[in-house]
Amino acid sequence: MLEDTFSELEQVRLKKLRTLEAAGIDPYPTRAEQTHTSQEAIEAFIQVESQPDASPIQVTVAGRIRSLRPMGKLTFAHIQDRDGKLQLFFRVNDLGEEKMAELSAYYDLGDFIQASGTLFRTKRGEVSLQVDDFKMLAKALRPLPAAKDEVVDGEIVRHAVLSDPETRYRQRYVDLAVNPDVQEIFKIRSATVRALQKFLDDHGFIEVETPILQPIYGGAAAKPFVTHHNQLHQDLYLRISFELYLKRLLVGGLERVYEIGRDFRNEGVSYKHNPEFTQLEFYWAYADYLMVMDFTEQMVAFAAEKVLGTTVVNFNGHEINLAPPWRRVDMRQAILEAIDIDIELNPTAESLQAALEARQIKHKPGMTRGKLIDALIGDFLEPNFIQPTFLCNYPRDISPLAKSIPGNPSVVERFEGFVGGMELCNAFTELNNPLDQEQRFIEMGRAYADDDEEQHPMDDDFVNALSYGMPPAGGFGIGVDRLVMLFTGRRSIREVILFPHLRSQDAEGQG
Question: Which proteins does it associate with, and in what oligomeric form (predicted)?
């Protein structure tokens, strides 16, 4: 039981709760009132305090108690709500002996309180609430980790006890309660999603929803999570991408569509990977990857301006400017400059492996040519793309859904966008020839082993959809979590996901 886990101090809080209940006071009342947030109350007072004939500002506020300072017949407290903090001033002359005794006997740091009264400014200049009534809204049985604020060089520096990353991610509710900067991360995340939506909406795109449970997974190179529908006796997959469903909508005549939602990939975790993550994908009829490139840099810059007020961000020790134009680099030329190997002169996996071995570059045996090139990108190019860079023109065999460059069937019109040394987005000129698409799926099946997580399964219904005619189009996907990492300067994806996936604590104990 929960009570069995309480410490001695928590048992004291529990006793206070029981005493409240015995006195007929509900420590978790059903109704609450809040006429102003802390910031709204302060702003309302400031607007009228210089007017000599203004009526006193009466407000009711609510929030979590962050400080309590009894001083005889007076008590000062601070409460915190979504907008910030407000000082409360309790005086026995206003409340009476019995009500003041209730405050000292039952209230602790972390409790939620509702307080009503009149706003005034203290001798020290702080706008405060002179309380004439208050009540408990929620009794906190466990204390929050203490936090200490101090002024250093004129700025407030917070020292929070809850700093261990593992504890912060497992108990995000506590992390948010004691670390205001963490709250700011998720306010920025919410604003980022809204900014992306606005940009796309303003350019004629419509937001849609596609299935999360799919009978056939596809649209990306990743291993899916598998589940089972009991009633239908059918295995299903959590989607790894929205792509194949969104392109079906192009066939149906919805020419500009996008979706923002969760994808799920049964793969390793890292500072930039989580098993479930948020993706934005859009598909744009009558566009190609060059048009999408222009559109991408405009969209990211728009979101940065909207959310941060600037296109300049600081990430991993680098000052990065997201404003257009972004650098554009041909993959063949970039690899040639990085390791002195011309991939065009090595058209097979065997010849490319030999070239790598000649330069003593390690690689996994048995990889396809495309996967070898992809590994070279990750090892030699991606870490050096700090300022926004589009890497263009990818091998056909790792891009089964992209259209080949005219006159060069082995290379497709695809780009990936890199910022801060990590991949941010991926885009194609979309393949819309159903016969070619079917052949690509067949080739992928031959190229990869049955247990290869990057094998693309044949999707007959998608090929069938293409056979009805899909307009030429540009397609695009961006990791929203990684964009928020850039906007907030956070190096780990776990910092920008409210509830990141973690190894179970039982499993950690066994390890």
Answer: Homodimer.
- Alpha-carbon Rg of the chain, whole angstroms? 29
- How far apart, in whole angstroms, are the C-alpha atoms of residue 440 and residue 444? 6
pLDDT tens sequence across 215-269:
999 998 889 999 999 999 999 999 999 999 999 999 999 999 999 999 999 988 8
Tell me the DSSP string of 253-298. Answer: T--EEEEEEEEE--S--BTTB-SEEEEEEEEEET--HHHHHHHHHH
Domains of the chain: 2-143 (2.40.50.140), 182-326+387-504 (3.30.930.10)
Both tokens of residue 355? 């070239």
Which pair of structure tokens corresponds to residue 179?
């670390």
The residue among 177, 320, 263, 298 whose CA lies nearest residue 481 is 263
481 with 170: CB under 8 angstroms?
no
Q: Is 430 annotated as a binding residue?
A: no
Q: Is 340 left (phi over 0), alpha (psi -120 to 50) or beta?
A: left
Summarised one tens digit per residue, pLDDT across range 49-105 is 888 888 899 999 999 999 999 998 999 999 999 999 999 999 999 999 999 999 999
Q: Which two tokens stand for residue 141?
A: 């049985």
Single pTM value for the model: 0.91
